[in-house]
Specification:
about 10% strand, globular, about 400 residues, 10 helices, mainly alpha, 2 domains, 3-stranded antiparallel β-sheet, single chain
Length: about 400
């Protein structure tokens, strides 16, 4: 029951994630005037000459821009940054592939997810396919008399008129200025966390039923895989760092943390549905995990723990106020380090793999052939990192809990 409540709290805490904002720029115009009739013809000739030169410059500029945006054969230039940021960011759908039909129009294939919005008129729900896979604010989803747009993963109320770039929103300093409803949608990250919660309940439930039915016998099937992992977390992490007197009541929490992070990391390495979500590479997710570790640690702190924080024994009295400040700050820097370590390592791994894959589309065939084995090597290494980061987060959490419940004898 404890494991179920922790899992449920972990998943509910992240409903409605957003992404980065979309920006646009505007252009200005210039006008000229003419003078008296005696120089009008000469001015007109100069203007014709200037228009001709300006037209050539514009044509050259357009050609140069087209050359920058496209390849030698007119193909669109591959944008590495856009591809990487799109894959590591949260989304309202699972993107599968893009294809071009016979008419030359591009179409996206994706798995839509439920969009849940709290608006001025109450709760509104619809599938993300109502946006037609658009994240630029060009397509309006009309639901229950209300109009919404999706701009880089954030949902806004649509404007009555389009802007100069064709988007249904007002731009302010390069960002949409439209009002936003409260977004509590089942995004890609939320869906993956819910999936992991269900998988954990099924895995632990099946293992528990096996032992309940067969007793303390040699494990078979799924139980044979789970037992060494559970024993490892119990004996080598919990018991070793918390102590034999208090460790047992923290084992369910540590098991939940370990398997939750590990399974999310593994699903993030799968490049297609239902994987590909960058859950533990989302700073909001790692922040809530760190908050759980912070609360469990400090709510279970013994008298000696708080004494060492605010009035360190065994040191001169003049130094104790300074140490109290340092120890108090340390209460928050420890979970902060947990949050950043997991976020940075998982995000860096995803970016590295995607960067190596990008080389295939940017370099010659020879260099592309080198990128393939490098990508495979890093992908295999990421399997180790997925387990290692789950282990480190759980180990440090156990260390913090152990320091909080330790009973000192002075």
């Amino acid at each position: 029951m404890h494991k179920k409540s922790v899992l449920l709290a972990l998943t509910v805490a992240f409903l409605g994630f957003g992404s980065a904002a979309f920006g646009n720029e505007s252009e200005g115009e210039q006008n000229t005037a003419s003078h008296d009739e005696t120089v009008q013809q000469e001015t007109h000739e100069h203007e014709e000459h200037a228009d001709h030169a300006h037209g050539e410059a514009e044509a050259h500029g357009e050609e140069h821009a087209a050359h920058d945006a496209h390849g030698e054969h007119g193909e669109e230039k591959f944008n590495v940054n856009e591809m990487i940021m799109h894959h590591i960011a949260d989304s309202h759908s699972f993107h599968i592939l893009d294809y071009t039909d016979d008419a030359g129009e591009e179409h996206a294939v994706s798995v839509p997810l439920p969009v849940i919005l709290w608006t001025d008129n109450g709760l509104v729900t619809f599938m993300s396919s109502a946006f037609h896979h658009d994240e630029t604010g060009h397509h309006v989803a009309e639901v229950d008399g209300q109009r919404f747009i999706n701009v880089h993963g954030k949902i806004y109320y649509a404007s009555e008129e389009q802007n100069a770039h064709g988007g249904w929103y007002e731009s302010h300093d390069g960002h949409p200025a439209n009002a936003k409803p409260v977004d509590i949608s089942i995004t890609k990250n939320v869906f993956t966390m819910l999936l992991v919660a269900v998988l954990l309940l099924l895995i632990f439930g099946s293992t528990a039923r096996y032992y309940k039915k067969n007793g303390a016998v040699a494990p078979k099937g799924l139980a044979s895989f789970m037992e060494p992992l559970v024993v490892f977390v119990r004996d080598d992490i919990a018991k070793e760092n918390i102590g034999g007197k208090h460790y047992a009541r923290f084992v369910p929490f540590l098991l939940t943390i370990f398997f939750f992070i590990w399974l999310n990391n593994l699903l993030g390495l799968i490049p297609f549905f239902p994987g590909s979500a960058n859950v533990t590479g989302n700073i909001a997710v790692t922040m809530v995990l760190a908050i759980f570790a912070f609360l469990v640690t400090n709510l279970n702190g013994k008298k000696d723990y708080w004494l060492h924080v605010f009035w360190m024994p065994g040191v001169p009295y003049a130094v104790r106020p300074l140490l109290a400040i340092v120890e108090f700050v340390g209460l928050f820097t420890k979970p902060f380090a947990l949050m950043l370590r997991l976020f940075a390592n998982i995000t860096a791994g995803h970016i590295l793999v995607l960067s190596l894959i990008s080389l295939i589309f940017m370099l010659s065939i020879g260099w592309s052939a080198l990128a393939v084995p490098l990508t495979l090597f890093i992908s295999v290494l990421e399997l180790l990192v997925a387990a290692l980061q789950a282990y480190i987060f759980t180990l440090l959490t156990a260390l913090f809990i152990g320091a909080a419940v330790e009973e000192h004898h002075h």
